[in-house]
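wait is this the right file?? whatever heres the structure
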């Protein structure tokens, strides 16, 4: 088959008519992914536990972009709420093309001092939430025999994070393994499952706190010599959600400025 380079260059709206769910949209990375998807032609369902911020984001999108966006309140750590969310979306659109699992928390607690509640909360939101959403949405994708699931993990799941975040590291390492296993399981149904591991990202609540704590030392390890910004992560998510990545599954895209080159 001859490759038409000019046609590829002229192709716009890479996510046109794709029904996309993005959890944790009220955070910096989730917000940037939502806007990026909208610009590429997707209809975006914003899922977050913060109703006020979610509704405001939809209003801002309608004002500034005049694109299709709706908000559904759901706690990703609650499987019943997640199942209801997926049901509502499928009944409204009759398909779900993309799921981005972006909801997450990053809290401080030394392992020896960590309570059961602190451990459980981080695992429930970061890892269980990814599982609950993937299971609920994946069931519909299986019926339609297509779909793309993108998990927003972290460099903290690939290497030792700063002290005081064992629960966060465990949750993100779990997401990395979960992605590979589920990609293998869902591949026969035309569902792609991929992972993005951002480095410390400036302009997010998690990233800005990490920068205040360990920023000077961390930046020394980054070959590109700068922190990520939310749009860096959004560009990766757009690619993985698009048909341009239709032969990519089970992969981890590390958007970290080259930290693992050494």
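ok assuming it is, sequence goes like this
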């Amino acid at each position: 088959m001859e490759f038409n380079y000019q046609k590829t260059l002229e192709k716009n709206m890479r996510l046109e008519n794709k029904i996309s769910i993005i959890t944790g949209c009220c955070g910096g990375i989730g917000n940037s992914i939502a806007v990026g998807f909208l610009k590429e032609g997707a209809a975006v369902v914003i899922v977050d536990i913060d109703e006020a911020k979610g509704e405001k984001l939809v209003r801002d999108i309608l004002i500034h972009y005049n694109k299709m966006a709706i908000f559904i309140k759901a706690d990703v750590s609650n499987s019943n709420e997640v199942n209801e969310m997926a049901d509502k979306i499928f009944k409204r659109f009759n398909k779900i093309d993309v799921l981005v699992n972006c909801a997450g928390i990053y809290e401080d607690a030394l392992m020896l001092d960590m309570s059961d509640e602190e451990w459980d909360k981080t695992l429930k939101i970061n890892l269980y939430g990814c599982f609950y959403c993937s299971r609920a949405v994946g069931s519909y994708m299986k019926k339609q025999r297509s779909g793309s699931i993108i998990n927003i993990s972290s460099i903290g799941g690939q290497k030792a994070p700063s002290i005081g975040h064992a629960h966060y590291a465990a949750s993100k390492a779990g997401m990395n393994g979960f992605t590979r296993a589920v990609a293998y399981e869902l591949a026969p149904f035309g569902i792609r499952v991929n992972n993005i591991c951002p480095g410390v990202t400036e302009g997010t609540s998690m990233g800005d706190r990490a920068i205040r704590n360990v920023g000077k030392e961390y930046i020394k390890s980054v070959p590109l010599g700068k922190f990520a910004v939310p749009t860096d992560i959004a560009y990766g998510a757009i690619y993985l959600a698009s048909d341009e990545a239709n032969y990519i599954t089970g992969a981890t895209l590390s958007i970290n400025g080259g930290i693992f080159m050494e």
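Confidence is low (pLDDT under 50) at residues 1-10. so i think its the right one actually
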